[in-house]
């Protein structure tokens, strides 16, 4: 290990910098091992960067606020960005690529848990399980009688937008429900047993439920626009466990409040933690606070993988799970 990384064996890491608040498990696992300086918020941020920016070689981050082009520019010797999370949408990958900065994420270890969340949203939205629970608690079973009928999940036609690791885990689960799976992806997945749709609109118009499992980046921004939502139609449901940026949220809200979509199950939003209040009164909409991967086991596995990337970079100059390879 280079001498500038560790001072006197006390695991005080120099040359590294933490950006933003970390989710609790990553915070705890990191704090148990290392002391790493945090980038202060303004008003101290600019002064800190002017004084220490050139010392920073590795950045640790965990989703937002991430690392934008300005921050990359303020860290002239940055070599690697380690993200605790699969999605790297809060990191300016173009700015990193231009400078040859490596970027790592935490793939695979969260796929099953996020897929479980998607199934939970499908079941809750179509069967009205959340609304049914509220019905009992409000005493309405007693005062109003039986809860209204819901929609079957078994045998549904489900379209998956983005058949990557998470999308595939969702599809596998849905096979157990006898669902017919179709997908759209930037590229057709060789050997996939599922029907391929040429476009998001073509996928949406041929399914009962559209599940978004793409990455969130500038290529997927508003991929699910008004035209796709209208193609899904008044009998169709939208489920999103990916990123709010993939959906034209204003159009989604307008169609849901106008009764032109059957319902939606949403774990992610355009401007988290703000959720359009127009959705709060709709029983055909299920709203989660971005909990796709939020189990104790998975958050620990993610934290340990992020730390493995960090340690590997410090000792070998290689990231374990890079989304962007370092180019010295
Ligand atoms: C976390 C996520 O909320 O992995 C992702 O991309 O969206 C979530 O698992 C995020 O990483 C913050 O820790």
TrEMBL record:
GO cellular component annotations of the record: cytosol
CDD domains registered for this protein in UniProt: HPPR
Alphabetic keyword roster: NAD, NADP, Oxidoreductase
The keyword Aminoacyl-tRNA synthetase is assigned to this record: no
InterPro entries reported for this sequence: D-isomer_2-hydroxyacid_DH (IPR050223), D-isomer_2_OHA_DH_cat_dom (IPR006139), D-isomer_DH_NAD-bd (IPR006140), NAD(P)-bd_dom_sf (IPR036291)
Pfam families per UniProt: 2-Hacid_dh, 2-Hacid_dh_C
Keyword Zinc: no
Domain D-isomer specific 2-hydroxyacid dehydrogenase catalytic positions: 53-323
Domain D-isomer specific 2-hydroxyacid dehydrogenase NAD-binding: 119-292
Record-level Gene Ontology MF annotations: glyoxylate reductase (NADPH) activity; hydroxypyruvate reductase [NAD(P)H] activity; NAD binding
Record family assignment: Belongs to the D-isomer specific 2-hydroxyacid dehydrogenase family.
Protein known as: Hydroxyacid dehydrogenase
Natural source organism: Mycobacterium asiaticum
């Amino acid at each position: 290990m280079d001498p500038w990384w560790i001072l006197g064996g006390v695991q005080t890491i120099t040359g590294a910098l933490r950006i933003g608040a970390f989710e609790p498990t990553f915070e705890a696992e990191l704090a148990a091992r290392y002391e790493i300086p945090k980038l202060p918020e303004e008003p101290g941020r600019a002064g800190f960067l002017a004084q220490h920016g050139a010392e920073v070689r590795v950045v640790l981050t965990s989703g937002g606020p991430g690392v934008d082009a300005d921050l990359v520019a303020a860290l002239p010797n940055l070599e690697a960005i380690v993200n605790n999370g699969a999605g790297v949408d809060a990191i300016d990958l173009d700015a990193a690529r231009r400078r040859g900065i490596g970027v790592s994420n935490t793939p695979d270890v969260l796929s099953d848990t996020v897929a479980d969340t998607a199934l939970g949203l499908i079941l809750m939205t179509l069967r009205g399980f959340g609304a049914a629970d509220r019905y009992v608690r409000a005493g309405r079973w007693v005062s109003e009688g039986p809860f209204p009928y819901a929609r079957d999940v078994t045998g549904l036609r489900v379209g998956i937008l983005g058949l990557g690791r998470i999308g595939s885990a969702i599809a596998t689960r849905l096979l157990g429900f006898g669902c017919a799976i179709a997908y759209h992806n930037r590229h057709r997945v060789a050997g996939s047993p599922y029907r391929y749709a040429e476009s998001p609109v073509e996928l949406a118009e041929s399914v009962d439920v559209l599940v978004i499992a793409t990455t969130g980046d500038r290529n997927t921004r508003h991929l699910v626009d008004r035209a796709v939502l209208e193609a899904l139609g008044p009998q169709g449901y939208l489920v999103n466990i990916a990123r709010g940026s993939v959906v034209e949220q204003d159009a989604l809200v307008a169609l849901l409040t106008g009764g032109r979509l059957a319902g939606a199950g949403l774990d992610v939003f355009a401007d988290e933690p703000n959720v359009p209040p127009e959705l709060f009164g709709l029983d055909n909409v299920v709203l989660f606070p971005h909990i796709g991967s939020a189990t104790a086991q998975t958050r620990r596995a993610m934290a340990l993988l992020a730390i493995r990337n960090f340690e590997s970079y410090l000792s070998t100059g290689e990231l374990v799970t890079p989304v962007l390879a370092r180019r010295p």
